[in-house]
Design a protein that fits this description.
globular; binds adenosine-5'-triphosphate; binds magnesium ion; 3 domains; Beta Polymerase, domain 2; 49% helix; 13 strands
Length: 447
């Protein structure tokens, strides 16, 4: 049964205006797919028989950006709304596994739908014409099936980015690749090498932020595809840890840990990288597997691969910080927590706690005993912040100038402040100006 498709007012307005000018126009791609699935639509793509020059004429008085005029795309903006209008087109020969040598405009909607990647993305809709679904995309949506339009291997050879898009659509929407599409995802994975790191990065992040229940099977079924981007994944697949902490092999553990965190890029990436160094430092003695030197290996892998994938510095730094410290000690202890809040800052500490919880959730049930402790540590840390307790120099009731006035010079000033902060955190003294001065005078010699 086809569900009723309701387009945004703006998309309807665009289609009606094009039709009134004598052209054909349809909503296509993600907006139709998502409407049928009854989930929110992120952007409206309109396919039209008008060529860009004609489209621009129809929308005189609207703000127009020539976002991809060579490929037939103009973006129309009006009163805060945006829609991309692309002329019906067919793609020429592909020579670099990504870009067609040329595109040709066509008056034929069917040809335009045939160039699209997956059947679920190749459905067109307009109020006047209804659904145009020549590749049975609606049936595939209803059966949760991801299927290439046409021959899957050829489609991935034309443009290997579709391989990453495929994994992304599965992990975000819960589709399962049908047999030939699944086989082609595996068989053509090596072509990903031809795709720019920026494009891979963007698809990878969207994929990793899919719903855990959808992401899990994708990561379990396609590690070889991801291994083209991050080769250290492959040695983890099937690598038994032989320790009583784990009942899963390294890749199974990694996947479960990824899926146990919130869909936030830095957390999901941190879990992806957190154990990738293990197969490179495995030792077996006293009946148990050990991973000495793991900390520096995992950091190096994370650094190398994130740089290769051109991650922005912020994401890179947060992920690396989490990967480096994913096994540090975290306890529900106010003194330790205040020191950690001071050292790592609020955001990193809370993320580290989340990473610890996700990591433990993916361990053997007998090794999950610390999860409650981590949860209560997070509560305690929130409390410290809410109560405005002192854990940093900023919150200390005395500053450098006050210390200088007491006769301290140069490095002594910083040392005195640190000494006082430490005493406050350890509960030796209250954080008020007079007590701090007094404490400093009495303990001057001990510093
Ligand atoms: P999203 O919800 O992320 O916007 P989308 O399916 O709309 O998903 P877009 O990247 O906006 O994805 O592309 C719009 C449409 O253009 C797709 O649905 C698909 O029909 C087509 N398309 C986009 N990229 C490709 C590609 N690399 N190969 C073939 N068709 C593509
Ligand atoms: Mg879209």
């Amino acid at each position: 049964m086809i569900k009723k498709i309701v387009l945004s007012e703006f998309a309807e307005e665009i289609i009606k205006k094009l039709e009134a000018a004598g052209y054909e126009a349809y909503a296509v791609g993600g907006c139709v797919r998502n409407s049928i699935m009854e989930i929110p639509v992120s952007d409206y793509d309109i396919a039209a028989s008008s060529i860009p020059e004609e489209t621009k004429k129809v929308f005189q008085g609207y703000k127009i950006a020539e976002t991809g005029i060579k490929h037939g795309t103009v973006t129309v903006m009006h009163k805060g709304n945006t829609a991309e209008i692309t002329t019906f087109r067919t793609d020429g020969r592909y020579t670099d596994y990504r870009h067609p040598e040329n595109v040709s405009f066509t008056p034929n909607l069917k040809e335009d739908l045939a160039r699209r990647d997956f059947t679920v993305n190749a459905i067109a809709f307009s109020d006047s014409k209804g659904i145009v679904d020549i590749f049975d995309g609606v049936k595939d949506i209803n059966a949760n099936t991801l299927r290439c339009v046409g021959d899957a291997e050829k489609r991935f050879e034309e443009d290997a980015l579709r391989i990453m898009r495929g994994l992304r659509f599965m992990s975000v929407y819960g589709f399962k690749a049908e047999e030939k599409t699944a086989a082609a995802l595996h068989n053509k994975k090596h072509l990903l090498k031809a795709i720019s790191p920026e494009r891979i990065n963007s698809e990878l992040c969207k994929m990793l932020c899919g719903k855990a229940d959808y992401l899990y099977p994708v990561l379990m079924e396609y590690p070889d595809v991801l291994g083209e981007i991050i080769p250290e994944i492959m040695p983890c697949v099937g690598f038994e840890q032989k320790t009583h902490y784990h009942n899963l092999n390294v890749w199974e553990h990694t996947v479960k840990a990824i899926c146990s965190t919130e869909p936030i890029v830095s957390l999901r990436l941190a879990m992806l990288f957190h154990d990738l160094g293990k197969p490179f430092c495995f030792q077996f003695y006293n009946g148990e597997g050990h991973f000495k030197g793991h900390a520096s290996i995992r950091s190096k892998i994370c650094e190398k691969r994130m740089k290769e994938l051109r991650f922005d510095n912020n994401t890179f730094q947060s992920v690396l910080a989490l990967v480096k410290r994913h096994d540090m000690i975290i306890k529900n202890d106010n003194v330790i927590l205040k020191k950690q809040l001071n050292k790592y800052g609020e955001n990193l500490l809370f993320d580290l706690i989340k990473v610890h919880i996700a990591d433990d959730m993916a361990k053997a049930p007998t090794a999950q005993g610390r999860i409650e402790e981590y949860r209560s540590a997070a509560e305690a840390a929130k409390n410290i912040i809410c109560e405005q307790e002192c854990f940093s120099l900023k919150k200390l009731a005395i500053n450098g100038n006050d210390i200088v006035k007491m006769g301290f010079k140069g490095k002594e000033v910083g040392a005195a402040l640190d000494y006082l902060l430490n005493a406050v955190i350890n509960g030796k003294i209250d954080n008020n100006f007079n007590s701090l001065i007094e404490f400093l005078v009495i303990n001057k010699e001990k510093m």
